[in-house]
UniProtKB/TrEMBL annotation:
Function of the protein: Allows the formation of correctly charged Asn-tRNA(Asn) or Gln-tRNA(Gln) through the transamidation of misacylated Asp-tRNA(Asn) or Glu-tRNA(Gln) in organisms which lack either or both of asparaginyl-tRNA or glutaminyl-tRNA synthetases. The reaction takes place in the presence of glutamine and ATP through an activated phospho-Asp-tRNA(Asn) or phospho-Glu-tRNA(Gln).
SUPFAM superfamilies on file: GatB/YqeY motif (SSF89095), Glutamine synthetase/guanido kinase (SSF55931)
Gene Ontology biological process terms, A to Z: glutaminyl-tRNAGln biosynthesis via transamidation; translation
Protein name per its UniProtKB record: Aspartyl/glutamyl-tRNA(Asn/Gln) amidotransferase subunit B
Entry-linked SMART domains: GatB_Yqey (SM00845)
InterPro entries: Asn/Gln-tRNA_amidoTrfase_suB/E, Asn/Gln-tRNA_Trfase_suB/E_cat, Asn/Gln_amidotransferase, Asn/Gln_tRNA_amidoTrase-B-like, GatB, GatB_C_1, GatB_Yqey_C_2, Gln-tRNA_amidoTrfase_suB_CS
Organism: Methanohalophilus portucalensis FDF-1
GO molecular function: ATP binding; glutaminyl-tRNA synthase (glutamine-hydrolyzing) activity; transferase activity
Recorded catalytic activity of this chain's protein: L-glutamyl-tRNA(Gln) + L-glutamine + ATP + H2O = L-glutaminyl-tRNA(Gln) + L-glutamate + ADP + phosphate + H(+); L-aspartyl-tRNA(Asn) + L-glutamine + ATP + H2O = L-asparaginyl-tRNA(Asn) + L-glutamate + ADP + phosphate + 2 H(+)
Complex and partners: Heterotrimer of A, B and C subunits.
Domain Asn/Gln amidotransferase: 328-471
Gene that specifies this protein: gatB
Presence of keyword Transferase: yes
Length: 476
C-alpha cells in the first residue's frame, strides 16, 4: 500500500533540544540544574547578556552535538563557527543570539520512522548549536497579556536545533518522528526528556504546494500533532475560499487547540548574521572517530538484538525498545526469568496497564515483575490472577505475595475443581442438554460457572478438559 497524501501535506520540523545533561551552560559556568530553582538564580553577566563580557565555549556540548549528528546518520562538518543572529527581544538582552549559520556542525542525515505506509525516511537537513534565550512568562494568554515576567535561568542553556526536510506527510508521521527522535536522544544520554522545556518544536506545514506556515514553540509531541491537524484544516479552508495561504509565524494555543497568527515570517537578511568575533572557528573533524567509538547501542540496533537474543516477535521488540527505560527494565527482568514470557508480560500487559493509568515504567519494580512471572510459570497463580496483582500494585501498592494472600489468588486445583465441575453439571441440566444438542456455546457457559465458583482461580483450559471428561464418563 502506498500512502496517497491526498492534500499534498508537507511537514518539516525544527526541534530545539536542550542539552540538559551537561553540568554547565553553553558559554559560561552557570549550573544547568535550575528547574526547581527560583527565577534568575542561575545567572551571571554572560548568560544575562550584559555588555562587554566574553563567552567561553563548553567543549562537552560540542561533543554531544557530534554524538547526535552521528546517531542521526549525518555528516559532521570539518570546521564550524558561530554567528550572531541579531534581533531585539527581551528574552535576549544582548540583542543577538549566538548560533550557527552557514557551517552547522552536522548536516544531511536521516531517521527511519513508522510511516503511513510502512518504513519512511525523514531526511535531516542540518543540526546546529545555539544558546537558549531566557524564558518569558506572559501573565494570562499571550495575545491579551497584561504583563510579562522574564526568567534568565534558562538563558545560555546549550541547545541543538535539529532541522528536518519537509518529508512528513501527516501530523501522525510528525508525531512518530518526534517520538523516535526523543528516543534516540535518550539512548545517547544527552538529555532528559522529563524536564520541562527540554524539547520544543517549530512545525512548518504547507498543503498542495502552497506557502508554508510555521507554528512556533510547541512543547509536546501530542501538541505538535494537534497543531498540525488544525493547520491542515485552516489552510484547506483558505484554499476553498479561493484565497492564498500566507507565509507567517503562528502560535499554538494548547488550551483551545487553535493556532493564532503572530507575525509575518522574517527573512534571513532581517537578522544581519555575521561571524561571532568573540569565538574562533573550530576544527572538529578529528574528533569524530573517537566519539564514534563511544556511541551506545541505538534503538534500531537494540530492537534487532532483542529479536535475535530473546527470540521475540518484532512488535514486542519495537514496543520494548521505544523507550530506553522500558528496554532496560525488560532486560533486567529477562536476566532473571524466561525472556519469552517476560517479553509478553512487560510489553503486552504491564505497558498496557501503565498507559491506561498514564504512568511510566518507574511506577513498577523489576523485582515485582519477576515474582509475578515466576508465580504464573510455576502454575501457582493464573494469568488472570497475575493481571489482577499488577493492577492492584499500580492502584493501591503492596507486594505480589501479600496480594496473593489477601485476595486468595493461589490457583485451585484437584479436588476443589473436581467438585466444582460436578456441582455445575448437576445444577445446569438445561445447559448440558443444549450442549448435547450441538450448542458449543453452552460448554463455555458451563466452564464459566466453574470459574465463578472458584472465583477465577482455576485454570480455564484445564477446567474445560475436566468438564469434557466428566461428561463422557457420567453423562453419556
Ligand atoms: N514547503 C514546505 N512545507 C512545509 N515545510 C517546509 C517547506 N519548506 C521548508 N519547510 C521546512 O521549514 C523548515 C525551515 O527551517 P529553517 O530553520 O531552515 O528556516 P526558518 O524556519 O526560516 O528559520 P528559523 O530558524 O528562524 O525559524 C524546515 O524544517 C523545512 O523542512
Ligand atoms: Mg530554524
Ligand atoms: Mg523556522
Amino acid at each position: 500500500m502506498v500512502y496517497e497524501n491526498p492534500d499534498g501535506v508537507m511537514i518539516g520540523l525544527e526541534i530545539h533540544v536542550q542539552l540538559n545533561k551537561l553540568a554547565t551552560k553553553l558559554f559560561c559556568g552557570c549550573s544547568t540544574d535550575y528547574h526547581t530553582s527560583e527565577p534568575n538564580t542561575h545567572v551571571c553577566p554572560v548568560c544575562m547578556g550584559l555588555p562587554g563580557c566574553l563567552p567561553v565555549l563548553n567543549k562537552r556540548a560540542v561533543e554531544y552535538a557530534i554524538r547526535i549528528g552521528l546517531a542521526l546518520n549525518c555528516e559532521i562538518v570539518e570546521q564550524t563557527q558561530f554567528h550572531r543572529k541579531n534581533y531585539y527581544y527581551p528574552d535576549l538582552p544582548k540583542g543577538f543570539q549566538t548560533t550557527q549559520y552557514d557551517y552547522p556542525i552536522v548536516s544531511d542525515g536521516r531517521v527511519v520512522i513508522e510511516g503511513e505506509d510502512g518504513e519512511h525516511v525523514v531526511r535531516i537537513r542540518r543540526a546546529h548549536m545555539e544558546e537558549d534565550p531566557g524564558r518569558l512568562m506572559h501573565m494570562g494568554s499571550i495575545e491579551k497579556s497584561k504583563g510579562t515576567l522574564i526568567d534568565y535561568n534558562r538563558s545560555g542553556m546549550a541547545l541543538i536545533e535539529i532541522v528536518s526536510e519537509p518529508d512528513m506527510r501527516s501530523p501522525r508521521e510528525a508525531r512518530r518522528f518526534l517520538d523516535k527522535l526523543r528516543n534516540i536522544l535518550e539512548y545517547l544520554d544527552v538529555f532528559d526528556s522529563t524536564l520541562e522545556g527540554s524539547m520544543r518544536v517549530d512545525a512548518n506545514i504547507s498543503i498542495g504546494g502552497g506557502d508554508r506556515t510555521e507554528v512556533k514553540n510547541i512543547s509536546s509531541h501530542k501538541g505538535a500533532e494537534r497543531a498540525l491537524l488544525y493547520e491542515i484544516m485552516r489552510q484547506k479552508n483558505i484554499k476553498r475560499r479561493g484565497e492564498k495561504v500566507v507565509m507567517e509565524t503562528r502560535h499554538f494555543d494548547e488550551a483551545r487547540g487553535v493556532t493564532i497568527s503572530m507575525r509575518t515570517k522574517e527573512e534571513e537578511h532581517d537578522y544581519r548574521y555575521f561571524p561571532e568575533p568573540d569565538l574562533v572557528p573550530m576544527r572538529v573533524g578529528s574528533w569524530v572517530e573517537g566519539i564514534l567509538e563511544t556511541l551506545p547501542e541505538l534503538p534500531d540496533a537494540r530492537r534487532s538484538r532483542f529479536i535475535s537474543d530473546y527470540g521475540m516477535v518484532d512488535t514486542h521488540a519495537k514496543a520494548l525498545t521505544s523507550d530506553i527505560r522500558v528496554a532496560d527494565f525488560y532486560e533486567e527482568v529477562a536476566s532473571q526469568v524466561d525472556p519469552a514470557a517476560a517479553a509478553v508480560w512487560v510489553s503486552d500487559v504491564l505497558k498496557g496497564e501503565l498507559n491506561y493509568r498514564d504512568l511510566n515504567i518507574a511506577s513498577f519494580t523489576v523485582e515485582d515483575m519477576v515474582k509475578i512471572i515466576e508465580l504464573v510459570l510455576s502454575g501457582k497463580i493464573t494469568e488472570k490472577g497475575a493481571v489482577e496483582i499488577i493492577r492492584n500494585i499500580l492502584d493501591e501498592g503492596g507486594s505480589p505475595m501479600d496480594i496473593v494472600k489477601e485476595k486468595g489468588l493461589l490457583k485451585v486445583e484437584g479436588d476443589v475443581v473436581d467438585q466444582a465441575v460436578e456441582e455445575v453439571l448437576k445444577e445446569n441440566p438445561d445447559a448440558l442438554e443444549d450442549y448435547f444438542a450441538g450448542k458449543e456455546k453452552s460448554l463455555n457457559f458451563l466452564v464459566g460457572q466453574v470459574m465463578k465458583k472458584t472465583r477465577g482461580r482455576a485454570d480455564a483450559r484445564s477446567v474445560r478438559e475436566m468438564m469434557l471428561e466428566e461428561i463422557d464418563k457420567n453423562y453419556r
